[in-house]
């Protein structure tokens, strides 16, 4: 088939596939599901899912903190009237299952066969508010939960429908904030916290930032391509190829039912920079061949033959760097690795199908720079090569010192995460959550499953005393600011049976008294807060609480001490306990992060080792290739240690991705060296020639990669900011190592033996 017809056929097939990609991309949706960040397949996750079916999720709530007027107290009739009006409004909203508010809070009293609910706040009698405040501050469980310790704010808690998605969640939040404004609450007067708040903000910002990053990347890459090639096709064709790969990758993601989340939102930006590598190597070699006087067809054949091998290997190693993220038990990271890895391979396919087809149909370009003046890059790279050789001791000594210092600094990196650590300290959403940390019980949930042993019930006195012992430890030593459990029910009922006297809020002294109390518990079964603490048959209970978001390092230490306390002080023959809950699952990610990072890096290193061994059949050459690519990783780990950057879910992907991308240029270099050695048996001259041939593409692609990742530093998410900054630094250090350490290591350690022409072996006796 003639080449032009083949080109048209190729373009037709690619256009049809792209149209299919457009169809699926149009159906792509943004999403942020907090539950996706739980460790998939973990036994604790299975346990929590069953636990939440019985007791409900511990994060299906919205906290609305309302501040009293300046220099005033919450025990103010007009203020409380507005709070009550908002409470009544919230109770009528769809998706709101329960509202706990200071204005509807009651002190139950049992008289005869009935229960009388006496309000803590007498809104119709302002004169009683001072006495009401005194009662509230003496009653356990109210101050720090619904009333701020300083009396300047109250909290209204909304329990929402389980796993509420963004559209209905946004609708609910809009209704609530609109009503607050109507009631005269300025934005500075109220604070919101909870999963719905984070979900709404995260998704909206993802959409805005994705557009911002893509726009910045397009402008940056377009400028660099024009500076490099100085031709319209040198700019447009790479953009078409990379945008096609992004379109196909996102279309495939949509077809598989995967939404854009905090991790997959990085795919277009990363692909826009990473996908440029093969196109730049291709066009650079194509222009070089044209500069040497080759015809258009011959230049394309040579480029495909000689660049295809190196580009294929580099695409393979880069995609493997992303595919290794699939070992993560965190679903967003798994999906990000899978579809970005596939997109890298799609970019390679388009580079060697779409790009040649377009170049073949275009006229042979008129090079703007005549050949006799076309070796400016050769001059710069030649001088740099000589400088590296002359200063080789300085280069190696300085490299050794930097590595040693980086290793020492990297030892300071810690794995630590908090519930909102992807938001900067000054972020309004994080400040709102901080308001509840400072004035109330906090936003970090705590869950402990309680099961009586040996066929007992949760209302056995021995069991209740064991639970109370746990509660005391959690308040005094663990750091819980609010606790509720089956003990809360029994104490509350006992208080209600004794006229609502706060002094009677305690466990009974005898089994006989306990039986009378348990007999009255059925009067309170309609109270949702009671239903959520004990199963109907009293076979299982729940201890729930809230605390400050102390971070996973301190939480792990506190949990270790808690387990020791439970083992030493709680009789397993009476009560069995198990730590569970969403916060516990997020903390468990820390254990997986280290494992996933080690597994990912190990797979990367093994694959690169196998590729180099297959190319050169030399262990020395394998070490030569690995060192310049591991050095930037070590240096950036040192930078993290110096800057106090913690390892967490979002930053755990940095090293694996950076190694997979950084090794790309090394693969191009050694594959060109392999081809050069077939024509040039002298190792020194072969290395120098490869340095001059590959140097331009290495510098240009690295500049685009560093620039592309640097656009991520404008993100309002700390995780995305550090991904952009640290991967950009890794690639910057990588190109320095590529142009300094790599040629020296090859010349020092690689023992090249030119292939000898075999002579015919004489046949004896012939």
Structure description:
The protein is α+β, with helices and mostly antiparallel strands. Strand 3 and strand 4 form a beta hairpin. It starts with a helix and ends in a 17-residue tail after the last helix. The C terminus is likely disordered.
Summarize the structure.
By secondary structure, the protein is of the alpha+beta class. The chain contains 25 helices and ten strands.
The radius of gyration over CA amounts to 33 Å
What summary fits the major beta sheet? Answer: 4 strands, antiparallel
Overall pLDDT, averaged?
Answer: 84
For the termini, the CA-CA separation is 51 Å
Task: Give me the secondary-structure topology.
Elements: H1 3-25, H2 43-55, E1 61-67, H3 77-91, E2 96-100, E3 106-111, E4 114-119, H4 129-138, E5 153-160, H5 166-182, E6 190-194, H6 195-229, H7 232-255, H8 267-274, H9 276-291, H10 296-323, H11 331-351, H12 354-361, H13 376-390, H14 392-410, H15 428-439, E7 444-452, H16 461-478, E8 482-484, H17 486-497, H18 511-521, H19 528-531, E9 541-547, H20 552-569, E10 575-580, H21 582-616, H22 619-643, H23 654-679, H24 683-710, H25 718-749
